[in-house]
User: Fold this.
Amino acid sequence: MRLMKALIETPVARQGMLIGEALRICVDKDVPGIPFAADSGRIIGRFSVRNVFLHYSIPSDMIKGAHLIGHEAFHLDLSSDHYEEVFRRAIDSTILDDAACLASTAQITKAMALMEKFNSSYLFVIDEGEYRGVVTRLGLTRVLLDEQG
Amino acid sequence: MDLNMLIAAAILVGSYALIFSEVIHRTSAAILGAVTMVGVGMLLGFYTQEAALMAIDANTILLLTSMMLMVAMLRPTGAFEYTAVAIARFSANDPRRLLVYLSLAVSLISMVLDNVTTLIVFAPLTVLIARILQINPLPYLMSEAILSNVGGASTLVGDPPNIMIGSAGGISFNAFLAHMGPPIAAVWLCTVLLLLLMFHKDLGPRRDAIRTQQFDLRNAIKDPRSLWRVLFALGLVVTLFFSHHHMGIFPAFAALLGLAVALLLMRPKPEVLFGEINWSVLIFFIGLFVIVGGVEASGLLGVLGTSLAQLASEPGKLLLTGLVLMWVAALMSAVIDNIPFTVTMIPIILGLEATGTQVAPLWWALAIGVGLGGNSTHIGATANLIAVAEAEQCGIRGARISPLAWMRVGVPTTLVGLVMASAIYTLFFDYFLA
Assistant:
């Protein structure tokens, strides 16, 4: 149960929740994403901070050519009006359906392997269908470091 | 026309209908058509497995594969990024110069490398340049797509239909360039002028501060050693293209030789490099070759060739035939994929040649038609679709290219290009006869 030492308990995202609300949960809990639950309570996807910015704020051309943009380019940031408009939208269109989950009994190495497999830095811990919380790569690393004293 | 010919024609039409309807992916449709053609042909006795394999033009497939791999090795070095950003800085914040320079670069690259790959790399860079310069990327994306199609039409390796035409007609790289280069250069020039005229409102002089220094050129080249190595290999390939007919080697082997040198110098990870090959395109072509091979084996294309031989028997009629072929090819390429049309026309022209007709002008007419025709609609060429998709997803106001917006620019440029090419083709017909 070493995984539980790194567990961060969070609320889940639900249909109709605003992007701003979901982002606030992530920021307050210091996690990169939270699970998205159906009305039945079953986890059916995830809300990802990274995906919100990919979806609404970072054009693909800028990602492809990020290394070519000089330090003097001062007009590329999006306006606060843009972010205000994005944060007022419902999260539904930003939900990813590839929520990576594992049981609290799983070992840290398996958790790390799952993160690599899903190209993610966090996982959802679910025991017998019940959502327990989020574990992150940094959190697991902290557990390993703490064990060494 | 006998029963075998009718059945082969029905399979061809059915396969093409499936390809163009996009009910299933075009490659899946081509495989389905090829399997049906071979199966039915074997049952009826007009087609064999051996004939089907012989119908696959290995020169085309190997040349395309080799060039795809060369591009796959060149792309991560950052050469394309360096070129685009250097052009942006060189244009000194003049939108018209930027359009001409970017279009020229894309056209020149498309003469040697696949223009679809060129656009895939250049389109997002163009949007980024436009974003930084705070200008609308639409004129640039459309011009790059249109002029890359035009540029690619000038060489044997610039466009897949040209590879097929050159391979079937036994045309050397030099002969292709000598015959297609002059008319395409004239068309290119007219197209650029027309584009500058049509986009003049978007390309007015800038009054604000020069922003081109906001690009960081130092980070563009990611791997200089690999860049020089792959450029050396590409230089070897181009040199071999210019001399392959003297040395008695096929263009495919010229490209393979350069590829072998590049592989030796670069030592890339095979699982990464070979994953970059566009297998879907290659298998699509193989499927088409097998389908058309079946129609040819049924004797239908021979009958068509004999019928057309009467039409093209005299020089005057041959000129008219060439012009009709050019415009029909352009029209077909505007609405459907130009590859199936080219693959179907090739055995018909070869059938004409078997009757003693001088078919050289028809190869050029076909190459001009399929090369230029795709520019009139957004679905006419893959490069156009890439430009439209990039404009769509960039989110810059006024950048979206609707089908109608494409046609407003594409149709006039294509018409002017075709009229120019037809005039040159008619005036210098004796040259195209050689």
Summary: Chain B has 21 helices and no strands. Chain B has a mean pLDDT of 91. Chain B touches chain A through 21 residues (CB under 8 Å). The radius of gyration of chain B is 22 Å.
